Amino acid sequence: MNTRADADMPFYFGPDRTLFGLFHACGTPARKAVLLCPPLGQDLIRCHRLYRQLAQALAAEGVAALRFDYYGTGDSAGNSVDMDWQRCLADTAAAANELRTRSGIDRVFAFGARLGGSIALASAAQARFAGVVAWDPVLDGRAYVTRLDAMQSALCLDGQRFMVPRNAADAAAQWLGFAISDSFRQQVMDLHVDRPTVPTLLLDSLSSDAPQPWGSFVADAAAVKCVQPATPWNDPRRLEVAILSHPLIQAVTRHVQEAA
Amino acid sequence: MQEQAFRFGRARHLVGIAGLPSPATPETVGVIVLNAGLVHRIGPFRLHVEMTRRLNAYGYPTLRFDLSTIGDSASSGESQTRKQQICADVGDAMNLLGEQAACKRFVLIGLCSGSQSAHMVACSDAKVAGAVFLDGYAYRTLGYHLRYYLPRMLDVKRWLGVLSRRHQATGNGEPTFTVAPLPQAVVRADFAGMLDRGLKLCLIYSGGISRYFNHARQFRECFGRVVSHPGVFTRFLKEADHTYILTGDRNRLLDSVERWLFDNFPVTTGGSP
């Protein structure tokens, strides 16, 4: 019998119990709590294992953790086309409160990868986060949309995937397997994350040959930490390959432990 | 209808999401969706979420869950072969859905390795009434080779391309992990055994497995007269890829699965198929 598994409870919560969550309790009374904000789209699926490993690593260190899915994603209610940026922020705040209730800890930190990091940063005030750890967050929405559109277009001609090339119309209004609305597309395009108002650690695992967008975002260079190896977020050949990183888990766990 | 999350199983090691439409009757089959590879229970591009919710809307109780050590499920702690684990896990899943929705018979749905898992259980568990194999077992046949090589041999442009690339390295050198398929004769006999026991089988294969399957005719080439049995439905979705990344392809797949369920396992009350 795995008692640790028993401690990880799946449930629905939030408005009309539409949000899926999985609470990782610790064996001892929790000293801190971390909300794990998932990325969106295919990144959510690719990071699922890593998020579970991170939650278990935190729980083993006496830190309660909550994983959850935004409305229209994962096991939560709603269709993919219902994804909405403001709803993601509101769901994050609801999840932070759920974590406070379940853990008995008011001081909640947030972790997020890619758009999950952007959501954690953008919702920091609303969700009353004590600090944020953002892993390769998306700060330039327009460039991100351009890259997703290019990958979606290239998909139609991928001879490894399709026996015959597909028309652009077949791939319209979708990003890498997920239907998106015009409004959500515009919301991501307009994405602008203000400078963080809470202590923030940026974990950078973008390729070293890519321009690093953090300079104007973080005043204190010490708040940026490089994680190796580089994460292949945008490699179409690895679109369905899980993203795993023990250095990342160690970095997040250590940072949360050391946070005041 | 709201979905419900469960931790369940003989060691409370499994995590799953049940869709429980009401009213459910014992005559209505429960539908259980198995992991595709290592993707957690939502399925590739959320395929399993879309599938189970569409079936719930028609009155079918459903469960999508993670097998031992996949997704959010832990190990049971038992010393078992993977086959024993899978059979026991699916048995636990059938018990849960039976308790929650009163159904006594079940249809298993699996894509890729999920199809292999469904095959294992369908061979031996009397509670399984039907199975949907998505990109399940398949074998290169003479017909496959003719369809693959003949057009290439007659294509001058392709020859020129091959000659210009002959010195380029292929592959990225990374290891790949695959499950050795059962021998063709074994699968053929397994299908015959399932049909003798009254199971209904639905085989839907995609163009994404064109490395070893490239035409609707290949169902018969692989499995012989078994595919002519009235309990077998086959469909080849040539245009689709292996994991149904495009929403239109996903909808066509779900339409096919729904229609097969309506035809073979109609909902007796509730829902509106």
From TrEMBL, chain A:
It comes from Dyella nitratireducens. This is Serine aminopeptidase S33 domain-containing protein. InterPro entries: AB_hydrolase_Est10 (IPR053145), AB_hydrolase_fold (IPR029058), Hydrolase_4 (IPR022742). Residues 49-145 form the Serine aminopeptidase S33 domain. It comes from the Bacteria. It holds the Pfam family Hydrolase_4.
Automatic annotation (TrEMBL), chain B:
It comes from the Bacteria. InterPro entries: AB_hydrolase_fold (IPR029058). This is Alpha/beta hydrolase.
